[in-house]
From TrEMBL:
It is found in: Cytoplasm. Residues 238-242 are annotated as: ACP-binding. The active site is at C112, H237, N267. It catalyses: 3-methylbutanoyl-CoA + malonyl-[ACP] + H(+) = 5-methyl-3-oxohexanoyl-[ACP] + CO2 + CoA; 2-methylpropanoyl-CoA + malonyl-[ACP] + H(+) = 4-methyl-3-oxopentanoyl-[ACP] + CO2 + CoA; (2S)-2-methylbutanoyl-CoA + malonyl-[ACP] + H(+) = (4S)-4-methyl-3-oxohexanoyl-[ACP] + CO2 + CoA; malonyl-[ACP] + acetyl-CoA + H(+) = 3-oxobutanoyl-[ACP] + CO2 + CoA. The keyword Cytoplasm applies. It comes from Listeria booriae. It comes from the Bacteria. This is Beta-ketoacyl-[acyl-carrier-protein] synthase III. Keywords: Acyltransferase, Cytoplasm, Fatty acid biosynthesis, Fatty acid metabolism, Lipid biosynthesis, Lipid metabolism, Multifunctional enzyme, Transferase. Residues 221-310 form the Beta-ketoacyl-[acyl-carrier-protein] synthase III C-terminal domain. Belongs to the thiolase-like superfamily. FabH family. Its EC number is 2.3.1.180.
Length: 312
């Protein structure tokens, strides 16, 4: 029994922070941000708007989109690194708020690769028949840990949440293959510093990302038995357009097969890939039996790549 995607949902905060706004806050320019990263604007959560608020909205929308009710859900897996507290988990909070009284809940920390880890975890429960309907959420509020004094990172990030409902699917659809990995030796390049703010060595992370996104994409394709030419859409972690383009080139895909949301959301950590997936669905860019490649990397350092054949 394959595990596939039954419904999708998202939430992004109302407030838009543009490159022009950042020009007023620090020594930077729209031109620098655009050409180095592809980002034009990002969403920033209100001070009193938390990861669990965004995760709740995204999960609610995904459950509705799947044609289910909260009581149908067996498990919530929330990929995040910016929850308000370690316990209760974001999963616990939204399980209660949704009235999903039959569900278990947990959070999972794999930074920007978190959504790929969550999806693979959910698939194991479904493939064994242990659970039927699982909500996987990617939700982060990186603005909370952004060092607004550091222009080399402050311009990169945004807030948001995306969710999918996973369940059993037929006709060879669903998750076909995955490739997850960790290189903890690179942890020093991206972490929380003593001020509890995000520190990043951009160049090192860039190098890691270009190499690992390409390598993991090729490995997962081989495991799935899908040829490069048969891929319909590449949905990479939306950190930097140059890293995304490098992945597209490694896979020899035409421009139109690369899903991009980095210009409007920036890097939203665990929500990045799932927000891009939801937007692709909303824009009508995904049809039944399309082959999708989702690939991410992040702090840890971690990476994850999935091949999914779309449809219930
Ligand atoms: N505005 C203007 N100038 C800037 C800014 C800014 N916001 N930030 C840095 N600069 C300057 C630097 O000071 C440097 O100036 P110098 O040459 O006088 O010293 C110059 O721009 C070039 O800096 P680099 O760091 O070499 O720029 P680079 O082309 O490497 O781009 C970037 C930096 C965008 C951060 C890139 O390295 C990158 O994208 N790295 C990967 C980041 C990433 O993907 N992180 C996600 C990790 S997962 C997670 O989300 C937690």
């Amino acid at each position: 029994m394959n595990a596939g995607i039954l419904g999708v949902g998202k939430y992004v905060p109302e407030r838009v922070l543009t490159n022009a706004d950042l020009e007023k806050m620090m020594d930077t320019s729209d031109e620098w941000i655009r050409t180095r990263t592809g980002i034009q604007e990002r969403r920033i959560a209100r001070e009193d708007e938390y990861v669990h608020d965004m995760a709740y909205e995204a999960a609610k929308a995904a459950i509705e989109n799947a044609g289910l009710t909260p009581e149908d859900i067996d498990l919530f897996i929330v990929a995040t690194v910016t929850q308000e507290s370690n316990f209760p988990s974001v999963g616990n909070i939204i399980q209660d708020r949704l009235g999903a009284k039959n569900a278990a809940a947990m959070d999972l920390g794999a930074a920007c690769a978190g959504f790929t880890y969550g999806t693979v975890t959910a698939a194991q429960f479904i493939q064994t028949g242990a659970y039927k309907n699982i909500v996987v959420i990617g939700a982060d509020k990186l603005s909370k840990i952004t060092d607004w004094e550091d222009r080399s990172t402050a311009v990169l990030f945004g807030d948001g949440a995306g969710a999918i409902v996973m369940g059993p699917v037929s006709d060879g659809r669903g998750l076909l293959a995955f490739d997850l990995g960790s290189d903890g030796s690179g942890g020093k390049h991206l972490n929380l510093n003593e001020k509890r703010k995000l520190y990043m060595n951009g160049r090192e992370v860039f190098r890691f990302a270009v190499r690992q996104m390409g390598d993991a994409s090729l490995r997962v394709l081989e495991k799935s038995g899908i040829a490069k030419d048969d891929l319909d859409l590449l949905i990479p972690h939306q950190a930097n357009i140059r890293i995304m383009e490098a992945s597209r080139e490694r896979l020899e895909l035409p421009e139109e097969k690369l899903m991009k949301t980095v210009h409007k959301y920036g890097n939203t950590s665990a929500s990045s890939i799932v927000l891009a997936l939801v937007d692709a669905v909303e824009e009508g860019r995904i049809n039944d039996d399309d082959n999708l490649l989702l690939v991410g990397f992040g702090a840890g350092l971690t990476w994850g790549a999935l091949v999914i054949k779309w449809g219930k």
